Predict the 3D structure of the following.
Amino acid sequence: MIERGQIATLIPHAGPMCLLDSVLSWDENRIVCRSAAHRDPHNPLRQGDRLGALAAIEFAAQAMAAHGRLAGAVRDKPRAGIIASLRDIRCRCERLDELAVDLDISATRLMGDDQNVIYAFAVACSGEELVTGRATVVLQADIPG
């Protein structure tokens, strides 16, 4: 298992914007992460006292970024990625902040190369999928370090 501190070195997000608490498993094509950040009253994605369901897409995007590094697709440095396209987004809840149990975030790499990648993702709670979809991510140049 990979913990939050190491995850922060894998993705181009720091401090409270690093939303993943752990990587539970990963392989060449898939990653599964866990997070309790949806319950944090200081979560930077909150709007007032709410964390809407679509914030789950950022949780999934961070899982995709971690997967890219762990699977070796993005080499040595974190790279910024821009979500160029979202498809087949399905939300089965309105809010994440009311959920008492940790989120499980999975992302499966469907295809891609060093410049573009397509993932299917699911954010679930207690085994129930809450937000699912597909994302096309365009990878940017290395972040200056």
The radius of gyration is 14 Å.
